[in-house]
Each structure stands twice: as structure tokens, then as C-alpha cells.
What does this fold into?
Amino acid sequence: MANVDALVIGGGFFGCEIAVELRRLGFSKVMLCEREPGLLRRASYVNQARVHNGYHYPRSLSTAERSRANFERFVEDYGYAVRTDMVKLYAIAATSRVNAAQYASFCGKIGVPCREAPAQLARLFDPDLIEASFLTRELAFDAVALARTAAQRLADARVEVRLNAPVKLDPIISATQPIRVATPAGAIEAGVVVNCSYAALDEVGVPVRARIKRELAEMLLIPPPRDIADVGITVMDGPFFSTMPFPAARLHSLSHVRYTPHEAWTEPGRGHAPPVRSNGEAMLRDAARFLPVLAKVEPVRSIFEIKTVLMRNEDDDGRPILAETCAESPRILSVMGSKIDNIYDVLETLRAHDWKEHV
Ligand SMILES: Cc1cc2nc3c(=O)[nH]c(=O)nc-3n(C[C@H](O)[C@H](O)[C@H](O)COP(=O)(O)OP(=O)(O)OC[C@H]3O[C@@H](n4cnc5c(N)ncnc54)[C@H](O)[C@@H]3O)c2cc1C
It folds into this structure.
């Protein structure tokens, strides 16, 4: 049986960063197990690639402020994977839950740039359906570039990475004994386990107390029309849409509040996104009403993922991190970053965690 000081379950963005940090914290033998054949293949790839800067969260001031606080730092630290040659518009629909003045005031409150969009961009929208559009500062990340660098950083930190390695904890969890974990290559004993499996958080054998909601989400990948090749657009606040550069595929993503979610559930047991019929046509049709340049777009493909959010943020759309020590054993920590820029909050929590007796 292999023995490791720390085992990280899940090779998404958070699992990779956490494994490197555990080495820095003094764990000698760190292993990361990922069930896919490569790193950052699941939610870390299948998402809207938005480096949040607060604009998305008018109903959760704390999430808006954390995003704003982490944004520039993320852009600097992960600059190799951030597309900076783009502009970002937030548009306010005439039927939005907030009006333009309220939205501008919210941006002022969190201290992010927000000024009226110049005429050549404002005219992209149907003036009957859009009350106002604002030029903002929000960028897109490239998950493939993040994955490439993560692999290098793990190798440099001498973290053992096992791919095609779905793991499951032994159901008997002891607070004082190493954790036994079954892997395809045989059992492992780990001094500590950090569970970073996102959509599968409560399916790897770690009991999780936080109530979690899952949503099967569809993102449509489209070739951007020339007029918006370097433009990201989000229409607030209600059943509208976002289209953003998706640098990992050199396309744009399109999501729609009404059509992106296919179904939602709270019970564990479906960590893989099953294939479903696409809502892409409905997304495009509705988005083109607001943004007519989308009318002639031929979509490339859809990508699906299980979006995982905390039930307690169901109403305010807040996206705080989850860092939960297992009730059965302080040796097991479940971590969910909720959005990419939350990495700093996760690392801070990891450093503050009491690992003393396990290092
Ligand atoms: C549709 C959608 C849109 C989003 N848009 C944005 C956005 O624009 N901006 C933003 O910041 N965030 C966004 N998010 C959230 C963001 O994608 C996630 O917070 C982030 O990617 C989570 O990273 P992770 O490493 O926790 O999860 P993942 O990248 O999913 O990594 C978890 C890994 O665990 C592995 N795993 C699961 N079970 C096992 C097992 N038993 N054994 C081994 N490995 C296992 C999985 O294969 C997976 O690779 C979005 C999410 C979705 C789904």
C-alpha cells in the first residue's frame, strides 16, 4: 500500500493550486488524483471564463467586493492565461430588475469602472430592449493555458499526479488514523485528504454538511461575429444572457439565464454531466433580440458541466468559498472555490488551517 502525507482529490484549478500549496506548507509527499485523463478538464474548463470583478453580483455585496479585491491580483499572477485585449460591456435590459442608475450606483459603491458605452458599441444593442450599456473592466481566462502551467508547477513542486484515477474513501473514517482511499492502482493511506472534486464533492466518500445545489449547465460555443470579436457582453439583471471570449477554444461562449440550466437537484450521485438535447437554438434566438449581430451565428458546439453552488446562496447569487472540515475526522477538508478568482481566499484558508499534527 502506498503512503502519502497528503492526498488531493480532483485536478481542477483548485485541486492543482492546493496540491502545490500543501508542499509549501511542509507536506513532503503529496499526491493528486484526477479521474479524467488530463488536468482542468471539468468545471475549470467548462465555464464562462470570466475573471470576475464584482459586476455580476448586485445582490451580494460581499461577493462583489471579494471579486473586486482579487481581480487585479489574479490578472497579474495569471497574466499568461488572461485575455487583456478585450472590452467588456454590461447592458441593462429595459425589463431588468435594476435600472441603469441603480446599476451605475452599485458599481460606484464597489469601486469598479463603469461609464456609458461609446456610441459605436452602444449601437450593437436594440434600443427598445436595452436601457443603457456600460463600458466596464472584466476579462476572460484561458483554461488551457492555466492547465499547462498547473502541470508544470505540480512537477516543479514534486507532487505526484495520477490521471485516470477516480478515488473513493474507505467508509470507515477515523479521526486519529490515516485515511484509506481506494484508487484503480490499489489502496493508499493518506495523512490528510483535501477533497476538491467540485460537482462530486459529496460523492467521493467524504460526508459534507453544507447543502449543495447542482445544475446541469450548457454553454454554447460560437464563432463571434466580427463586431464583437474582442467584446464580452452581459445583459443584467434577469432572464438574459452573456457572451464572452472563450480563449481556450478561440471562440465565444454564450450562456442564458433561462436556457443554460437544464435541470437542478440537491441529492448526490450524478457527478458526471449526462448528454442532453441542446438548448443552443433558443439561447441564440433570444439573445439575438437584444444583440442583433448574433442573428446569423452558426454555433460550433455545446459544452456541459454540473454547476455546483451552495444552497445558502440560492437567493443572492453569492459565491463564497466552502472549506469544511469533516465532522468524522479533522484530517479531511472539503474545499470548493465557487469561482476562479476565489483562489486567494482558498489559499488563505488553507494557510490558516491547523495542520500541525499532520505535517
Ligand atoms: C457553467 C459554468 C459557468 C461558470 N462560469 C464561471 C466564470 O465565468 N468565472 C468563474 O470564475 N467561475 C465560473 N464557474 C465556476 C468555476 O468553473 C468553478 O468554481 C471552478 O472551475 C471549480 O474548480 P474546481 O477545481 O473546484 O472544479 P473542477 O475543475 O470541476 O475540478 C474537480 C475535479 O475533480 C475531479 N473528480 C471528481 N470526482 C473525482 C474522484 N472520485 N476521483 C478523482 N477525481 C475526481 C473531476 O474530474 C474534476 O476534474 C462556472 C461554472 C460552471 C459550471
